[in-house]
Amino acid sequence: xxxxxxxxxxxxxxxxxxxxxxxxxxxxxxxxxxxxxxxxxxxxxxxxxxxxxxxxxxxxxxxxxxxxxxxxxxxxxxxxxxxxxxxxxxxxxxxxxxxxxxxxxxxxxxxxxxxxxxxxxxxxxxxxxxxxxxxxxxxxxxxxxxxxxxxxxxxxxxxxxxxxxxxxxxxxxxxxxxxxxxxxxxxxxxxxxxxxxxxxxxxxxxxxxxxxxxxxxxxxxxxxxxxxxxxxxxxxxxxxxxxxxxxxxxxxxxxxxxxxxxxxxxxxxxxxxxxxxxxxxxxxxxxxxxxxxxxxxxxxxxxxxxxxxxxxxxxxxxxxxxxxxxxxxxxxxxxxxxxxxxxxxxxxxxxxxxxxxxxxxxxxxxxxxxxxxxxxxxxxxxxxxxxxxxxxxxxxxxxxxxxxxxxxxxxxxxxxxxxxxxxxxxxxxxxxxxxxxxxxxxxxxxxxxxxxx
Length: 453
Prior knowledge:
This protein is globular. The protein has 20 helices and 16 strands. A 5-stranded parallel sheet has the order 2-1-3-6-7, with helices on both faces. The chain has a 5-stranded parallel sheet with strand order 9-10-13-8-14. The chain is α/β, with parallel strands linked by helices.
């Protein structure tokens, strides 16, 4: 039988050094918390099994074990106790290891009391893991195993401060996944700042991320906050993080590790409490191998990986998602898909994923007659062209990735030639956004030099 929740939050502090235990207890008591001490891993396990705690704070290195064992004990027994681990200063490997194991957060030695208070406040704001949400991943449509796995991982990572890297093709819902993580986290009421790293000129990056002081450069007529200060106590999403130049990656790594930033023109660093989420449609591990992305920053951002599946990986969900989108558009008109139209959508490859599907449904809704969307209203010419070529024989279809890239390249070039290389018009023909088309042209190395092809 689980114990009744107490009015005063209780914190279990685990350390083998009496003076550190006393210092931590004093700081926590001053915050109005009840503190229970444990002198090592074994005593901590016993306390956790016998009593209810709202937070556990444990040292990493102790004579009878380490903090990872405490984290695993809490996880294995399904205890609803956020746990933070105190690690050696600058030990990135330990910090990443405890977060991967399921720790809520970590603190570096020597423990800064302001960071301790911030961590404790965030941990105590966490909703109970058993609490029911009114919309369990409702914004992520689909019931396929791939989408169910995404929802479950979002639920789990929301209860941590660990950095999450969200991968997936353009239009697959990476920013939506980030927003759902925030909505289910202790930071749900705090700022959420999404930054497109590829849209910021390199010479402005430092001032945009960290802010600047008045007079720092020509035009700096007043102090200004950067993205980190704007997201303080909340969450910062680094979208298209692979586009960051190496010079900025170094500064970003320091800000994440030290939890401090220095404005351009300032002499002192200022503390910031920001959870970092990142996303990109590119293969970040491959970028590390190619030397365009720092390995240490990659490990720091990629503590927990979340892959957003493409529509090709969840074809069984396409009719459901399409009907959901149509339901938002049609109002009381009663417009519906014909069975053939839904089959055509399920067979289509969707290079632009859900974003492309939204565009296709919106266009078909405007074009359909008699309240029924037919296959012709979808205008899925690239997919039909690909299917036609596939029927000509098996030669040249393998490996599959190269074959699909070739088909996609031909479809994009056909649309570009039809529009005299007007990319905006070509994107409309293909049923994708301008941004999605630009990314795919870069990936397939399509340039203005292909006009003569």
